[in-house]
Design a protein that fits this description.
The protein is an alpha/beta fold. It folds into two domains: 115 residues, Rossmann fold (3-Layer(aba) Sandwich), CATH 3.40.50; 182 residues, NAD(P)-binding Rossmann-like Domain (Rossmann fold), CATH 3.40.50. The chain is 34% helix and 13% strand. It has 14 helices and eleven strands. The chain has a six-stranded parallel beta sheet with strand order 7-6-8-9-10-11, with helices on both faces. Strands 2-1-3-4-5 form a five-stranded parallel beta sheet, with helices on one face. α1 packs parallel to α14 and α6 packs across α8. The longest helix is centred in the last third of the chain and has 16 residues. The protein is globular and about 65 Å long. This is Hydroxyacid dehydrogenase. Keywords: NAD, Oxidoreductase. Pfam families: 2-Hacid_dh (PF00389), 2-Hacid_dh_C (PF02826). Belongs to the D-isomer specific 2-hydroxyacid dehydrogenase family. One of its GO terms (molecular function) is NAD binding.
């Protein structure tokens, strides 16, 4: 390992990157800061040992072919579908992320907050109401809804975010159930024994499972048919977890009450995003909300998560410097 000041770090998305975190990096390395286009990134990465990125770039074989010196990728995310993991592994590049950092992630509320904002926006028809007003309307009867306590909320996944959403549900006096493969949760009074049982019981489905190689399109036409007609779905996990073609058709047919998502399959690649079935119908249906993967994008959460992965990386360095400032 090279000594302090000799390593080279590339930060792809520096907007609102904290000065404190930048100072930490500059104490051990030479830092180059973007933002970069994809072609600029491919050029700049050639002599870099460390890459720090959020979610604006897809790091694939084309990038790796130019990254002969790359040793680490730091990404303050709980998903890694913006990185070609097979290519990274073949090149012995260590990826430092937030995966598995349960205790730390419990202190980060931003994704849970945005999930609840999407849920409220979808059920109370807030975007449609604002569009109506912008056009000069003021007809409240067009936007009647139900109190949340009349809905049963279903949580797919009862980890960090799922538990946060359950707490919000309690505040709104909303009954909730969940399905999770963790055997330690089977005796929980709100646990369902199967996905089918969950889907049959609920009026709203909120998705909180991580994407992995085994669960692409975990929710699809064969199991989503168990939902009641008019069910609402909220997704702040990953777009690849659900069959978006099925969702698009169900929205057009009004079989679903609505779908609110912060994520899309292949969202980073602009050409694929444009061809996404949900993007294609977004302007023609009134029961769809899409936000551009902003659930984790609060200043405080981004500063804390970036600091966490930086410090996690620093522990890997061959240095005797044990005087790093404490985390805020």
């Amino acid at each position: 390992m090279e000594g302090p000041g000799q390593m080279k770090i590339l930060i792809t998305e520096p907007l609102d990157f904290s000065n404190e975190n930048l100072k930490l990096l500059k104490e051990v390395a030479e830092v180059k800061i973007g933002p970069f286009t994809r072609m600029e990134l491919i050029k700049e990465i050639e002599d870099m040992e460390v890459l720090i990125l959020r979610l604006n770039h897809f790091i694939d074989r084309e990038v790796f072919l130019k990254a002969d010196n790359l040793q680490y990728i730091l990404t303050p995310t709980t998903g890694l579908n913006h990185i070609d993991l097979e290519e990274a592994a073949a090149r012995n590049i260590e990826i430092i992320s937030l995966i598995g950092e349960t205790e730390f992630l419990a202190t980060i509320p931003s994704t849970g907050e945005h999930t609840w904002a999407l849920l409220l926006s979808l059920l109370r028809k807030i975007p449609q109401g604002f569009d109506h007003v912008k056009k000069g309307g003021w007809e409240r009867d067009q936007f009647k809804a139900h109190n949340l306590c009349h809905y049963t909320l279903g949580l797919l996944g009862f980890g960090r975010v799922g538990k946060q959403i359950a707490e919000y549900a309690k505040v709104f006096k909303m009954p909730f159930v969940f399905y999770d493969i963790n055997p330690e949760l089977r005796d929980h009074p709100n646990a369902c024994n199967s996905l089918e049982e969950l889907l049959k019981k609920i009026d709203i489905l909120s998705i909180h499972i991580p994407l992995n190689d085994q669960n692409s399109q975990f929710l699809n036409g064969s199991n989503l048919t168990h939902l009641k007609r008019g069910t609402y779905i909220v997704n702040t996990s990953r777009g690849e977890l659900i069959d978006e073609d099925y969702i698009a058709e169900a929205l057009k047919a009004k079989e679903l009450g609505g779908y609110a998502t912060d994520v899309l399959a292949n969202e980073i690649i602009r050409e694929k995003r444009k061809e996404n079935p949900l993007m294609k119908i977004a302007a023609t249906v009134d029961n769809l909300i899409i936000t551009p993967h902003i659930a984790g994008a609060t200043y405080e959460s981004m500063w804390k998560t970036e600091e966490f992965v930086i410090r996690k990386w620093l522990k890997n360095l061959d240095t005797s410097n044990n005087t790093w400032p404490k985390m805020r």
